[in-house]
Amino acid sequence: MPSQLVCRSSLLLILMGFCWTGLLSADEKEQEGKQDDTSTRLKVGAPAPKYCAYVASGDASCTEDVKDKLVLLSFVTLKDKHLEETLKTLEEIKVQHLRVPDFQMVTIFIDSFEDFITYCNKRGSRFYSNSRNWALCQNVIYYEEDGYFTHAEISPEKLPRHFIISKEYKLLAVDVPREKLAEQMQGFVEELKQGEEK
Question: What would the 3-class secondary structure string for 26-53 be?
Answer without folding.
Answer: HHHHHHHHHHHHHHHHCCCCCECCECEE
